[in-house]
Structures are given as structure tokens and as C-alpha cells.
Amino acid sequence: MEKLSTRHLLGIKHLTRQDIELIFNTADNFKEVINRPIKKVPSLRDTTIANLFFENSTRTKLSFELAEKRLSADVVNFSASGSSVSKGETLIDTVSNILAMKVDVVVMRHPNPGAAVFLSRNISASIINAGDGTHEHPTQALLDAFSMREKYGDLTNKKVVIVGDIAHSRVAISNIYCLQKMGVKVKVCGPPTLIPKYIHALGVEVEYNLDEAIAWCDVAMMLRIQLERQGADYEGNQVKYFPSIREYANLYGLTLERLHKLNKRITIMHPGPINRGVEVSSDVADSEHSIILNQVENGVAVRMAVLYLLSGRNLE
After folding, report:
1. Does residue 59 have an active-site annotation?
2. 6, 7, 13, 59: which is the annotated catalytic residue?
3. Cβ-based neighbours of 262, under 8 Å, separated by 6 or more
4. Comparing 12-137+297-311 with 138-291, is the CATH topology the same?
5. Is 137 designated active site?
């Protein structure tokens, strides 16, 4: 059996192109499994997986749980709210206590960048980063690229524009790393205040005009405004990066009217949750241009593949 070059999934930055292709090929097999009448396989029977979510999550947590149960793993769910963390327990104490229960894999979301890396250096279980602050969200990038591959086949020289709050988005950073490793040309688009100054260092072009951006691309990945990560000033007021949501929607919101002006057909993606009427209109989100629901379905197959490969089990 082929193996990943790493025993953790801490970020796309740490994966090779061969790792990504192995995950995709494994996810192809699992996608076939989850479309059967009986959707479970015994691949991770007797493997215990702990889901540690120190930050609110609905879609990612549900997707991981479903992937784990489809693989017949034993699942332990841990939420920081109402736990000893709120009483001052440290991250390493929390995890050490969970590992004392003989956990094999830890899936963790944490508000601090680098938390998953810190954990991987201090405990023996395999760590999967389910999002750490504004740093990375590797399984989201993998499922996004997997969904594009399903739509287009070979991704070499495909053009993808990522639109929205790039500065506060871990999805954007992970997607840039992942897509570039697959030979994709990437641009970012958004208000200048939401484009980080270091973005050129990642080999990415910047386009401030949405109409120009979608005229260039094959795929437009729309991101929501990350208000919860944009912070407050010293008086506690929300920092404003643009005048109003209405103005943002006028300049950077994707509508059918905008799509109909193109002389070609493009694919629309969104990692969710969608703010309908802000970054995309409802008729775009629900249109034939959109593969947003495919992304959700593919998330389970890709996470099954990652869990299975990191567990080192043989596919049954």
C-alpha cells in the first residue's frame, strides 16, 4: 500500500503533490462506498479518533464525524465550551488526558495558528488540523481541489480566482498551496484592505476588479467576510475594512447578471457557510454554475481518505 510522506496532516504546505494525488485516488474509492446502499466499511474498526473542537464548527465537525463513522471508527467528541479548558486547563493537559484513553488519531480545530504543529511535537497520536486560526484548513483545500478535479480532470494550467476576505481566510491560504502544487494558476480578488501584503510572495497575482477576475478564470471560489476574525480597535469597536456590506456586495458579490455578461461558462465554488446576497446571490448559489453541494459530499470522501491513510490500515 502506498503511504503519505507524513504521519500528520498539519497543512498543505507539508504535503507533496504525490501525497495529494494519493489522497484523491483513495477518496475516489471512498466516494463509491458512500454512494452504495450500505455506506460503511470496516477499515478503521478498533481505531479511536478524538474530535477536539476549541472553536465553533458545524460543517467541518459533522463531515469528520460522518467520515469516521463510515469507516467504523470509535469516535470521541470534545468541545472546549463547558470543558476543563474554560476552567484554565492547558491544551497539552487536555490532549494528554484524552490520549490516556488510548486515542489513535486527533482531529483538532483551534483558534491559535500553529496549535496542531505544537500538538504533533508533544503527543504520539496522528494529528489532523481541522483549522487553526488564520493559518491553514488543509482538508477544505483538498476537498475543493478534489471537486475541481472531478469537474475538469487534469487541473494543470486551469485558472482559479479566490474572491473575498483573503487576509483572514485559512481556506484561501491552504487552497493557494494545494492548487499551485496541482499546476493551477491562482489569482486573488477583493478590496485592497482584505488582501494581505505578503500575497505576492506566494506567487499569486492580485485583481481588484471582480468582472476582470471572472473573465480570466475557469473557477471562481467565493469566500465569506470573516467578521469574527477581523478584530476590534483599542476601544472595542469592530474594525471596518470596507464602508458597508451593501457596498461590498455591489463590488464583489457574484450575481447571475455578472455571469451572463461573460462569453464563457465558469464554475462557482464556496467553502461555506454562504452569506446569500453578500458574496453570492441565491440564484448563483443554486444555479447550474455552482458545485457547492458537490463540495459538501466530496468533503466526506476526502476526509475518509485522509483518516484512512494516516491510520496506516490496509483497505478492506
Report:
1. yes
2. 59
3. 214, 215
4. yes
5. yes
Report the top-level CATH class of 138-291.
alpha beta
List 60, 134, 139, 267, catalytic entry = 60
12-137+297-311: what CATH class? Answer: alpha beta
**What's the pTM?**
0.92
pLDDT in tens, the chain (316 residues): 689 999 999 999 999 999 999 999 999 999 999 999 999 999 999 999 999 998 888 899 999 999 999 999 999 998 766 555 544 567 778 777 877 888 999 999 998 899 999 889 888 899 999 999 889 999 999 999 999 999 999 999 999 999 999 998 999 999 999 999 999 999 999 999 999 999 999 999 999 999 999 999 999 999 988 654 444 444 445 556 666 888 999 999 999 999 999 999 999 999 988 999 999 999 999 999 999 999 999 999 999 999 999 997 544 3
Active site residue 185: no
Helix residue ranges per DSSP H, 41-159 = 59-70, 91-99, 115-120, 138-152
CB atoms within 10 A of CB 4: 21
- Concerning whether 170 is annotated as a catalytic residue, the answer is no
Kindly list the domain boundaries of the chain, sorted by start residue. Answer: 12-137+297-311, 138-291
